Amino acid sequence: MAEYIESLQRLAEKFGSLQGIGKKNAMKMAFSVLDMTDEEAADFAQAIIEAKEKIHLCPICQNITDRDICPICADEGRDRKTVCIVSDPKVVMSMEKVREYKGLYHVLHGVISPMNGITPDKLKTRELLDRINEGEIKEVIIATNPTVEGEATAMYLSRLLRAFDDVKVTRLAYGVPMGSYLEYADEITLYRALEGRRDI
Amino acid sequence: MAEYIESLQRLAEKFGSLQGIGKKNAMKMAFSVLDMTDEEAADFAQAIIEAKEKIHLCPICQNITDRDICPICADEGRDRKTVCIVSDPKVVMSMEKVREYKGLYHVLHGVISPMNGITPDKLKTRELLDRINEGEIKEVIIATNPTVEGEATAMYLSRLLRAFDDVKVTRLAYGVPMGSYLEYADEITLYRALEGRRDI
């Protein structure tokens, strides 16, 4: 029946194109939209447009934000000498939940993965080097995922940053279980990993 | 961090308001939207608006459709003497997958549930009686879910339809496991249930 209702099918396909949403769930979600009032549906559509329109990358840390400079970079109370390098904005969210880290971030937007055509120049490494060249940063904490690709990226960065004699380069401790993803780690594990960070 | 990005938070809330979507998944979906191109996001928003705009109830069977009369009611090849009563458009989808049923449908849009304020007059029973009064229908198959509320609705309908001497009222056989929902039943179970339907 759904195949007859083109607009329902089309909406289900849109939901199905989102990360982690299967066919059955996508159809359920499309039906949920039909149960909304016209106003709620219009609001929903508007939320999609607005999120795309308003959210861009912070020119300093490359994290997503809806302001000129993201609230973390703009916060005068944060330690501007320490920068934590993460692969993804979601990891910043997880780190911020720990409420222990007071430094800044740098979001790479990916990890090195030659198989998928992601070479170092596809990441925000140039922006990182520019920041370090300004001279204020004294410690860089590499917080990529403890996966093969995350480790390779950490290795690459540690070599790249050796050129800066006065910058300490550390890596999150192996409190985070190998093969997992930082964005799903619990606060305590992340806190331990942060505490036990070591030179690289 | 997400709490700083109002438009992202708002989008995640919209996704979270859909049936069966938890908080974590809603946020993942919102991030998925950020990964879309502007065009894809606009398409997605448009799909929501269009589904709401174009889809309405078929004036005959009360199923959802984007045409004047739904394709099933409009199909001359179908048996117009038999009507299958279901609670929900999703059940029509499941029944149609069996490819065995050739009659028409009537969608109640709910089941009797006094606890939730759903009394018989909130369902599409008046429209059903109007159809039966036209005199063409000879058999009504009650295919509500085999749950407490579905059974109560079946009971109510069977009593209501006793007034029509020349209309046979049947119920799906208990091929469908008790306590489950028809929309998730597999084709074979539904087929058996259809085959073994009995007088009520």
Describe the protein's architecture and organization.
Two copies of one chain form a homodimer. In chain A, the strands form two sheets. A five-stranded mixed sheet of chain A has the order 4-3-5-6-7. Chain A is α/β, with parallel strands linked by helices. Chain A folds into two domains: 2-54, Helicase, Ruva Protein, domain 3, CATH 1.10.8; 57-199, Dna Topoisomerase Vi A Subunit, Chain: A, domain 2 (3-Layer(aba) Sandwich). In chain A, a hairpin with a 6-residue loop joins strand 1 and strand 2 (64-65). The first copy, chain A, is built from eight helices and seven strands. Helix content of chain A is 44%, strand content 14%. At the A-B interface, helix 1, helix 2, helix 3, strand 2 and helix 5 of A face helix 1, helix 2, helix 3, strand 2 and helix 5 of B.
Tell me briefly what this model is.
The structure is a homodimer of 200-residue chains. Chain A has 200 residues and is an alpha/beta fold.
- Whole-number radius of gyration of chain A? 20 Å
Main sheet summary of chain A = 5 strands, mixed
- The CATH architecture term of the largest domain in chain A is 3-Layer(aba) Sandwich
**Principal-axis shape of chain A:** elongated
CATH names the topology of the largest domain in chain A as Dna Topoisomerase Vi A Subunit, Chain: A, domain 2
Number of helices of chain A: 8
| Class by SSE composition of chain A | alpha/beta
Largest interface: A-B, 54 and 55 residues
Oligomer: homodimer
How many strand units of chain A? 7
Reading the helices and strands of chain A in chain order gives HHHEEHEHEHEHEHE
- Tell me the strand order in the biggest sheet of chain A: 4-3-5-6-7
Overall mean pLDDT of chain A: 88
First and last CA, distance of chain A:
59 Å
Low-confidence stretches of chain A: none
